[in-house]
Design goal:
The longest helix is centred in the first third of the chain and has 36 residues, at about 45-80. This protein is α+β, with helices and mostly antiparallel strands. Strands 4-5-6-7 form a 4-stranded antiparallel sheet, covered by helices on one side. The chain has a 3-stranded antiparallel sheet with strand order 1-2-3. The termini are far apart. The protein has helices at about 5-15, 45-80, 105-115, 120-125, 135-140, and strands at about 145-150, 155-160, 165-170, 175, 180-185, 185-190, 195-200.
Length: about 200
């Protein structure tokens, strides 16, 4: 056995006497040192542990739902919603004898020749009003596009030299008999009785 150090002897002596000193007075009981791993359970610590458990369970549930959604979507995309049918839905099927009769090509070409399918229709020619070119020229020559304010609702700044006024206009507004059809980055498209005119910067 190794010889004991003075501190160890003193410690054994204190333990043998049951916590009494050599004078016979009781000593204070030594409070065992708390391990840093075994801290006192405070209400805040318990609350954090519960919150941690709840969050862990919530994340696990969300991960599981995501996996199910992914697999279910993959399964649904591979299987058709409706089974393929071999028959038709109508009960009556046309017979070969009742085939649709087709007319010869000459019949259709003669019908096409009777009509001018690439020209304007007669109705459209009757509906277009006659344009007074002199009034149009005068109204158009007196306008100067000063600027364009772009954005969600673009505006155009047009100066009327004849009246000496500056107009801030939106799409759909009119200046005299000219209606604003569209406002673009570099020009304004005006409409005069169906005739489109470009007013450029």
């Amino acid at each position: 056995m190794e010889p004991l150090t003075p501190e160890e002897r003193l410690l054994r002596l204190i333990r043998k006497k049951g916590g009494k000193t050599s004078s016979g007075t009781p000593t204070e009981k030594a409070v065992p040192a708390r391990s840093p791993l075994k801290k006192a359970k405070t209400p805040l610590l318990v609350l954090f542990k519960k919150a941690n458990q709840i969050l862990t369970v919530g994340v696990a549930i969300l991960f599981g739902l995501g996996a199910v959604h992914f697999l279910w979507g993959k399964f649904r995309s591979e299987t058709p919603l409706l089974p393929e049918t071999t028959g038709t839905f109508s009960e009556e099927t046309p017979k070969k004898e009742e085939a649709i009769s087709r007319k010869p090509y000459n019949h259709y070409s003669s019908e096409i020749e009777k009509r001018n399918i690439f020209g304007p229709s007669l109705q459209a020619e009757l509906e277009t009003p006659s344009i007074d070119t002199q009034a149009l020229r005068e109204a158009f020559q007196n306008l100067i596009l000063v600027g364009i304010i772009s954005g969600k609702n673009p505006q155009a700044i047009i100066e009327d030299k004849k009246e000496g006024k500056t107009h801030f206009i939106n799409v759909g507004d009119t200046i005299g008999q000219l209606q604003v059809e569209d406002i673009r980055e570099d020009k304004v498209i005006l409409n005069y009785r169906g005739e489109r005119l470009d007013l450029a910067l």
